[in-house]
């Protein structure tokens, strides 16, 4: 399904062997109107590497105000957000309750003739609840033992003409906002979930990066272009993970989503295994080359279908299927960054990650030395190796990893979009965490406007559109706006998660868990609650203590807690709190609406049974 909105070309390079387009049908409520267009070779003369039989110029379709308009009525497609004081950061995304309807009186279907014999096995891998499918993958083994791997990204820029009303609203929003219970989309839902989304067994316009790779992930050839794909199935991360974990077993058909008749379960399974194998090599090499990863725990919820209230939660598990997709998205983003920067050295929209704040980082290194944890922070790769070495390999290694990750996240700066023409020193272009010279965002244009800009630059670089007529300072202003919106979006997502977890504690608490101490003050200490991945501060004056005292051993802070005995004949219980101490905590709701606190359990008290501690809370 597609709508062609501008006087432009759909270009299918001859070597991709996909197909050409000969007619467009407009479906209305009352009739089907068909008009065939002849291929027009004359405008293509002089364009390098483009063969006329593979191209079609489609005139712009006429749009009435009724078909495309901005209104000030309350959004019926999900843009309306309830007025929650905790979500005031969301207001930039719903100013004036602006609603966009996009061609809501009809859809446009691409009818394909002269289909070439080639039919790639292309599929998507996304969260099971995803409705906006930005990216698809393909992988096939070649006769020489190498692989052809394709990353296909929804061609949103084709549907969002530059300077249009839709473009202006999308640029203002700059990002979709992902709340626990809903998504506030950057684009109208008809685009997000239907026209642009790479839904299975429908023809979709895409921007593709296709490589010839060795089994070790070395790039032998690289190609960029506009294509049309038909995804054969919509896999979830769970589906892909099952395929990875069961490489020799046939996955039962009933456990998988529908697969188009042209392809088989075995074909998809083998493609996933091949992608996984290459992704492992790409990932290994990235960290050998000095990449750094500082992931923090992410809480996921199950919601009641009727009330929308949280029924349970678990820590989201980042598995091999997630890593598979991530590696190829990173590869595509880096490839496009180099392409647009080579072509437009003054007008490329890139993404840089500045090095960490030096003073904060050196103070943290000194503190870790005092804790007996020598850390090498000379580079991103050195820090990553030090962190990995320090985690240990016992059952609490993940907890120590999260505590250290949190500590070393604090000196880190935010990654930023920028215009290449605004920085003279190319060393400032570098992405610290990825440890690469050039990076951008290309793979999520449905939910990030920066990616739409990058798609337009890539289209111009490939000769599909005119050269960009924008000054570097104008592009930098748009980059700054994207940065602001991204940070605001991140903040409101965190608020949304905190709000829903507070509701869960109120409805299902008190909840008990082990926790690891991650910071010690003179009258309080911070803990990472291991079962839920949340961080809370525990205050000494809220505990049943006889006394407490704070001291530093070198730079190592310690709190000594003296608990009142339960029995007058017993001696007071002493407890020392320092970094990495394991403690038992109870999360309980406060009288203040939708707030909760953490209370330290007295040492020696019996732990609640797993059944009691997990009441209404699901394990991962």
Automatic annotation (TrEMBL):
Protein name: RNB domain-containing protein
GO biological process terms on file: miRNA catabolic process; mRNA catabolic process
GO molecular function, one term: RNA binding
Record lineage: Eukaryota, Metazoa, Chordata, Craniata, Vertebrata
A Pfam family matched in the record: RNB
Residues in RNB domain copies: 118-464
GO cellular component: P-body
SUPFAM superfamilies: Nucleic acid-binding proteins
PROSITE patterns in the cross-refs: RIBONUCLEASE_II
């Amino acid at each position: 399904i597609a709508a062609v909105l501008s006087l432009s070309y759909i270009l299918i390079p001859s070597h991709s062997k996909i197909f050409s387009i000969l007619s467009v049908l407009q479906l209305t409520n009352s009739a089907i109107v068909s008009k065939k267009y002849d291929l027009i070779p004359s405008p293509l003369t002089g364009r390098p590497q483009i063969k006329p039989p593979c191209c079609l110029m489609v005139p712009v379709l006429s749009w009435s105000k009724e078909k495309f308009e901005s209104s000030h009525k309350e959004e019926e497609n999900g843009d309306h957000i309830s007025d929650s004081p905790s979500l005031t950061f969301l207001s930039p995304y719903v100013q004036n309750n602006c609603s966009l309807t996009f061609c809501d009186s009809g859809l446009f279907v691409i009818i394909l003739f002269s289909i070439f014999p080639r039919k790639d096995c292309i599929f998507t891998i996304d969260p099971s609840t995803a409705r906006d499918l930005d990216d698809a993958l393909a992988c096939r083994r070649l006769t020489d033992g190498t692989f052809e791997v394709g990353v296909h990204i929804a061609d949103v820029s084709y549907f969002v003409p530059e300077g249009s009303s839709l473009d202006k609203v999308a640029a203002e929003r700059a990002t979709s906002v992902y709340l626990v219970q809903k998504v506030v989309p950057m684009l109208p839902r008809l685009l997000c979930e239907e026209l642009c989304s790479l839904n299975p067994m429908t023809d979709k316009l895409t921007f593709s990066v296709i490589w010839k790779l060795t089994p070790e992930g070395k790039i032998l050839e690289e190609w960029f272009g506009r294509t049309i794909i038909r995804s054969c199935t919509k896999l979830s991360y769970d589906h892909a993970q099952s395929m990875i974990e069961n490489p020799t077993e046939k996955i039962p058909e009933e456990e998988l989503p529908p697969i188009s008749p042209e392809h088989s379960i075995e074909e998809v399974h083998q493609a996933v295994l091949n992608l996984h194998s290459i992704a492992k090599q790409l990932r290994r090499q990235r960290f050998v080359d000095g990449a750094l990863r500082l992931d923090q725990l992410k809480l996921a919820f199950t919601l009641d279908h009727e009330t929308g209230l949280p029924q349970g939660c678990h820590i989201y598990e980042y598995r091999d299927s997630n890593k598979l997709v991530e590696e190829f998205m990173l590869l595509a983003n880096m490839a496009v960054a180099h392409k647009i920067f080579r072509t437009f050295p003054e007008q490329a929209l890139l993404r840089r990650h500045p090095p960490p704040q030096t003073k904060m980082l050196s103070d943290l290194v000194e503190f870790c030395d005092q804790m007996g944890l020598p850390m090498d922070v000379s580079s991103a790769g050195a820090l990553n190796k030090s962190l990995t070495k320090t985690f240990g390999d016992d059952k609490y290694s993940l907890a120590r990893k999260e505590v250290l990750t949190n500590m070393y996240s604090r000196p880190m700066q935010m990654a930023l979009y920028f215009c290449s023409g605004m920085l003279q020193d190319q060393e400032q272009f570098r992405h610290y965490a990825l440890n690469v010279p050039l990076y951008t965002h290309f793979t999520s244009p449905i939910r990030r406007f920066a990616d739409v800009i990058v798609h337009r630059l890539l289209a111009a670089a490939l000769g599909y559109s005119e050269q960009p007529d924008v000054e570097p300072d104008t592009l930098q202003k748009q980059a700054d706006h994207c940065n602001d919106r991204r940070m605001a979006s991140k903040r409101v997502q965190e608020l949304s998660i905190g709000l829903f977890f507070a509701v869960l504690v109120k409805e299902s608490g008190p909840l008990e868990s082990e926790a690891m101490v991650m910071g010690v003050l003179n009258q309080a200490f911070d803990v990472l609650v291991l079962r839920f991945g949340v961080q809370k501060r525990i205050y000494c004056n809220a505990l049943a203590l006889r006394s407490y005292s704070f001291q530093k051993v070198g730079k190592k802070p310690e709190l000594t807690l003296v608990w009142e005995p339960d029995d007058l004949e017993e001696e007071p219980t002493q407890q020392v709190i320092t970094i990495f101490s394991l403690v038992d905590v109870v999360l309980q709701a406060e009288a203040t609406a939708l707030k909760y606190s953490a209370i330290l359990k007295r040492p020696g008290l019996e732990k609640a049974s797993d059944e009691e501690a997990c009441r209404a809370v699901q394990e991962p």
